[in-house]
Design a protein that fits this description.
It is a single chain. By secondary structure, this protein is mainly alpha-helical. It has two domains: 70 residues, Arc Repressor Mutant, subunit A; 180 residues, Up-down Bundle (Four Helix Bundle (Hemerythrin (Met), subunit A)), CATH 1.20.120. It is built from eleven helices and two strands; from the N terminus they run αααββαααααααα. The chain has a two-stranded antiparallel sheet with strand order 1-2. The relative contact order is 0.13.
Length: 268
Amino acid sequence: MTDARRSPVAQHRIAEIVAAELRARILAGEDGYRLPTQDQLVKEFGVSHPSVREALRILETEGLVTVRRGSVGGAEVHRPDGSSAAYHLGLALQGGRVTLGDLAAGLRELEPMCAAQCAEREDRHETVVPALNASVDASAALVGDGVAFTQAAREFHDLVVGFASNATVRYVVSGLVALWSVQEEAWAEALTRRGEYPTEEEADGAVHAHRRLVEEIAAGRAREAERVARAHLAATQALLLDRFDDGVVNVSSAASRQAIRSGRHLRL
């Protein structure tokens, strides 16, 4: 394939073909996969350097590579993961003017389904229940420390979703949970600064709800686990929505981008 004399349109199409092949390699490759150098790609595909650079630019806009310029240049590969999915989902929600109330309602429909799947796992006593109990204990020890307690309590929700048996459900719902966690932790920081964080009794109530949910999961009662999870979500979401305007989901701030891309709220 040679494109030395091709028109810009033809060159762009060739770049898209090269990008498609490299994209497939990145997605199929193992962690740590590295792309060949630009010179190697030129030789392999029989195309010009501009076409290779355009192909890499396409992949860079998709977040699959970072192209480093200069003497130490090259293309660093980024396999897509839950954090990148959550961030782009957040951008779509923000662009669509989706409100926090709408996000909360979506989570009330979808997250309890993950709790039910946890209760249906045959290995729940070896894998799910010990991790959830440890998470509840960690949050219980932080009652009275607003921001730290909120972060620990959100970890419990991350785990419930992360233990869902269906991979598609895990990826989709974990992205929504990550987006809500960013909002809830920002809320906790704001209320703590104003001295208005909920009382220790309310925090104890959240811990109790988590323990109740673990009991239902351990007993294998999927329908009851789903019911408990939905009721708990409704109660905790109301604390945020009652104190703040039902604004649009926001992931465009530097703090939000960092929180989501850190992957701290994604247990896939």
